[in-house]
Amino acid sequence: MPKVVSRSAVSSSTDARPTASAAAALRVYYCICGEFILVIEKSLTALPKRETDGATIIRTQDSGNHQAIVFKLNANTSDPVLVERSGGHERQYRFSCPRCNLLVGYQSTPPPIKSGPFLYILRGALTQMQGQVPRDAFDDEAALELLEGATQ
Question: Are 104 and 37 in contact (CB under 8 A)?
Fold first, then answer.
């Protein structure tokens, strides 16, 4: 059998301008367990937060002057949950990690993902460093312990 030889050359230039694809880097986010959950074109810290629960708001559909954000969510859906809010009730269609079932986000319309105008990612649910717990994962833990202590 003849021997196959291939040659390749890699060239680069420090004078070359960055391309549009290089400037539009995608960000990858993982669950606390290390499972890949979200790829998105913007940093979650740069997106607006919801006042009711501090969740990050991802616009899923174009609306007027606002463009939808490009993303891919790897999560399982679950049954809807009715959450009591100060102004009434809110139905949440929740998404959880496929590996450990940790709740990572929700939307206000029935699945599939992107069927409604917004997707909400819960604060502290995702990290950019695989296997590392995000800094804000346990922010509400102290407040929860104080509440539990006051009711006992």
Answer: yes
Q: Name residue 82's beta-bridge partners.
A: 91
Segment (H or E) for 141: helix 141-151
Looking at the chain, how many residues does it have? 152
Tokens 């913007």, located at residue: 42
Q: What is the mean pLDDT of the chain?
A: 84
Note if the pTM is more than 0.85.
Answer: no
Q: Which of 132, 103, 126 shows the shortest CA–CA distance to 43?
A: 126
Q: Could you give the 3-state DSSP secondary structure of residue 21?
A: helix
- The stretch 112-126 carries a mean pLDDT of 93
Ramachandran sector of residue 87 (left: φ over 0; alpha: ψ -120 to 50; beta: rest): alpha
pLDDT of 4 over the 60 cut: yes
Q: Tell whether the torsion through CA atoms of 48, 49, 51 and 57 is positive or negative.
A: positive
Model pLDDT for residues 17-71, shown as the tens digit of each residue: 666 555 568 999 999 999 999 999 999 999 999 998 899 999 999 988 999 999 9
d(CA 55, CA 136): 11
CA distance 109 to 89: 14
